Amino acid sequence: MTASAVAAATQLPRIHIIGTGNVGCLVAHSLRTLRQPPPIVLIFHRQDVKTTFRRRGNRIRVERDRVASIVSGFEWQVMDALEYWMPQYLSPIRSLIVATKAHQAVPALQKIKDRLSPDSTIMLLQNGMGVLDEINRSVFPDPAKRPNVVLGINSHGAHTSRPFSVVHAGYGKIDLGVVPRTPSPPSSERSFKGATGDTTKDTPTPSSADTDSSAETTTGDVYSNNNLLNSPPDLETLPESTRELIQVLLSCYDLSFGLVSYPEILAIQLEKLAVNAVINSLTVMFNCYNGQLLYNHSISRMIRLTLFEISKVIAAMPELDNIPSREIRFSPERLERVVIGIAKRTAVNVSSMLQDVRAGKQTEVEYINGYVVNKGAELGIPCSVNFMLKEMVKGKLEMIGARLREDLPLDPSYTRAPYPDLL
Ligand SMILES: CC(C)(CO)C(=O)C(=O)O
């Protein structure tokens, strides 16, 4: 970096990243390869992750078309570190990219929530749906104290063989959508009736609005100003930290970030939910590549049944009223075309859920098929196919977990179960 670039970079606000799996590493790497890279702070959840990072030379490696690019210059913090009282561990966080798995987002944010405020912006990059709801409920119950939120939906394919080393195998994009903040506009503009509450009631006073979480929906805080919601927001109108984060991400050309409207990001998120509900769980069931789900009559029938339930749930979700052409976009036939297209495009991928199950790691199935089942239950739509897929993934993980534990018997009196290797 030239001296002027260093000087310019020191002016740029720090971006913190929590979660250094495939997606976190891709984004961190991309930001550090900018001509004027912002300072990036990687937040590790445990000391041993930091030790591994140091052993890798404090660098992140990304391989594309067999060409490796290695970047350094990262700062880091460890959440459970003894030195947690040091100023950098207490300083406010302006921008935070949350790239953890869905089930890790809340525990991670609990540990650093005091460093976040309404002046901060967090970007969520999880698979599935329901994470924002959980964060609002258990990390930031008071809407007035919440940070600004950007949803990011990733369609890049990446896998890793070693920590902090990622193979960027499938080029996709990352769509960004800004979640509108509460308090909402005046009551006359608020006609949206949420799944769990009615926001048409009189405009609450700031204090009652702050505590009224019943007016929120799974998809965040929504108000129905169609003009505002159906086109991407004007950057100038966004809170400063949101604008800064989005501007820098839009300049990362290798990851093709794009800003879309709030209804559009919900639609993209739901399409991805449908794709993951089918491909991820079925590849676990059949222990196969994505492409092996194609051209198989029995599997086609299972795909159709799964999508039929998902389509019915999406059609009934009142918080999605703002999504244009919802009936056509989320019809079972269209969803099937989307799923088949992605299975073809990612034919030689091992789905992220199958990667997790094989490694004995918790999956995101509760936020994918589980989300459909829970939403269906709220709306009176039974989703037994998705329920079975969810339980099947969890059952398979338990089986593999038991086998992995057998490989490391902690109890010397334990004798191996007499099952030859079939899984
Ligand atoms: C699109 C797909 C199914 C690609 O593998 C994916 O998103 C995943 O594996 O999580």
Topology of helices and strands:
Elements lengths: L2 H9 L3 E4 L3 H11 L7 E5 L2 H9 L4 E5 L2 E5 L3 E4 L8 H4 L4 E4 L3 H11 L8 E4 L6 H8 L9 E7 L2 E6 L2 E6 L3 E6 L26 H6 L14 H4 L10 H11 L6 E4 L1 H25 L10 H20 L9 H4 L2 H14 L6 H7 L10 H11 L4 H24 L16
Parallel strand pairs: 1-2, 1-6, 2-5, 3-10, 6-7, 7-8, 11-12
Antiparallel strand pairs: 3-4, 8-11, 9-10
Helix pairs in contact: 5-6, 10-11, 10-13, 10-14, 10-16, 11-13, 11-15, 15-16
The structure holds ketopantoate.
Ketopantoate (KPL) binds next to α10.
Short key terms for the protein model shown above:
binds ketopantoate; four-stranded mixed sheet; 423 residues; 14% strand; N-(1-d-carboxylethyl)-l-norvaline Dehydrogenase, domain 2; Rossmann fold; alpha/beta; eight-stranded mixed sheet; single chain
